[in-house]
Amino acid sequence: MQYISTRGKVEPRGFIDTVLMGLADDGGLMVPDVIPSVSSATLEEWRNLSFQELFLKIFSYYTNGEIPDGDLKEMVERSYGTFRHPEVTPLKEINDSLYILELFHGPTFAFKDVALQFMGELYSYISRVRGEIIHILGATSGDTGAAAIAGVRGKEGIKICILHPHNKVSKVQELQMTTVDDANVLNLSVQGNFDDCQKVIKELFADLEFKSKYHLRAINSINFVRILAQTVYYFYAVLKLPQAAQGKTVNISVPSGNFGNIFSGYLAKKMGLPIGKLIIATNENNILERFVKTGEYKPGDFKSTHSPSMDIQVASNFERYLYYLTGEDSAAVNGYMSKLAGEGAIKVDGQLLEQVQTDFAALGVKNDECLNIIGKYKSEAGYLLDPHTACGVAAYEAHNGPGEVCITFATAHPAKFDEAISLLKIAQEFPPQIAGLAALPQHMTVVEHDKAEITRQLEEFYI
């Protein structure tokens, strides 16, 4: 297997070179040149595997033998040995049609840990065996930054800079990033929103001279390894359903902002995992819902919500889906992305829109509805949802059909978003790792949304 760009202007690369490239040099996103097929018989053989064993099985289709099996196994064991639950991503039954996959048992209490603990180990491995300098650059709407920093802090041969929107992440998210004082970590708090941060990141990666000079590497879901690592828990969730749910149509509802998590499910389905509907749950920044319902992809007005990790109007991974939607036509993708850059919107219709609506269902959840769902499930099921997971549960209620079951992803621990939980007068017990953050000093630099100033900060840090 080799990896190619959605825009078709990059020579095919191997697995490790794809990891190091991150954003493709032509501005596109890297994808495998063929998606492997997993048979139903193989899936049945995998049913009783641990998360770590399943991870190794799935990655074996994609690494081309570039990483020895023993080295990969050691990385996986180190990555998930820090998780607070032995199953890594346990599946909880809420009622006879709703299951919740808890993805928040990693060190920063968010689903990003699942991929980024492994990516930290992988980058450290590459730095060691290739003698590569690794300078990680990323933007976050809250959870990616903390998880990425946790994955690489203190690691030799690696420096990481994370941009986050100033005062537009939850306080816990901010503290998890900015209370880290390791010398290889730089936090830039940008006056603007997440899309502003992400735009600068993409521009810097598109500057091939700057990217090469400073050995920039991506930690965001523009990096295919993030997508692949997340695909593992889709397989794990479906395979761990109890006997009573097996044989039924299985839908998966995913809180979605940057389209990376839901695209991982799309990849799993194309590999052969039996999934019914892939349900996109978003908030009032609902560009993805509008696209699924109307075919128009057009950023709207930014709104602050109770689910800030989904306060995104430009979804980076949308281009990967567009590539497959157009029948892997890189020329068509180039046309769409040029039009989006020039006119601020694109639209698909006819058979393409029909395919979108076959691939996905979607729901944009209002702030009040999000809070109502949190209160309802705390009262009726005794289960406390964070605001993002609540959006996923609202989407399950809207789109799950009779006789179907749905797995909703719990993408963060509710303690990370007590600003919303406290509005319901719900008192929660904070894990000690979160409760102690407020007493720690913060380390961050507040900067204007200015590419030149951000570039200067990076040059000083990377020297």
Automatic annotation (TrEMBL):
Residues 89-398 form the Tryptophan synthase beta chain-like PALP domain. The keyword Cytoplasm does not apply. The modification N6-(pyridoxal phosphate)lysine is found at K112. Pathway: Amino-acid biosynthesis; L-threonine biosynthesis; L-threonine from L-aspartate: step 5/5. It catalyses: O-phospho-L-homoserine + H2O = L-threonine + phosphate. InterPro entries: Ser/Thr_deHydtase_PyrdxlP-BS (IPR000634), Thr_synth_N (IPR029144), Thr_synth_N_sf (IPR037158), Thr_synthase-like (IPR004450), Threonine_Synthase (IPR051166), TrpB-like_PALP (IPR001926), TrpB-like_PALP_sf (IPR036052). This is Threonine synthase. It comes from Paenibacillus stellifer.
